[in-house]
Design goal:
Elements (H helix, E strand, L loop, with lengths): L2 E5 L2 E3 L5 E8 L7 E7 L6 E6 L5 E3 L7 E6 L4 E6 L8 E9 L2 E4 L3 E5 L2
């Protein structure tokens, strides 16, 4: 069984910070490319950040300089540190693990940025 479980979402004020975690099981974690996606109400799911098995990172333009993706292979966990949060960051955030054509998804965690 493959399982990805996100945690760390919640309600935060604009300008605040939040750290999301995604713990994986059932895969050889170190071999997978990882990503964080988000989907806001009424909008398409979009890619936020990726980190490859070699730890190369890429970010969507709107989060560059504010978000940091990282991984801890010893803990089978990928993180998304989110700083300087804006209301437009409000969405359900999903983690993804991929190798070749094989993709796995977490259940999502809600992030709400509001005063």
């Amino acid at each position: 069984q493959v399982q990805l479980v996100e945690s760390g979402g919640g309600l935060v004020q604009p300008g605040g910070s939040l750290r999301l975690s995604c713990a994986a099981s059932g895969i050889i974690f170190r071999l997978y490319d990882l990503g964080w996606y988000r989907q806001a109400l009424g909008k398409q799911r979009e890619l936020v950040a990726t980190i490859t098995s070699g730890s190369n990172t890429n970010y969507e333009d709107s989060v560059k300089g504010r978000f940091t993706i990282s991984r801890d292979n010893a803990k089978n966990t990928v993180y998304l540190q989110m700083n300087s949060l804006k209301p437009e960051d409000t969405a359900v955030y999903y983690c993804n693990a991929a190798i070749g054509i094989r993709h796995y998804w977490g259940q999502g965690t809600q992030v709400t940025v509001s005063s």
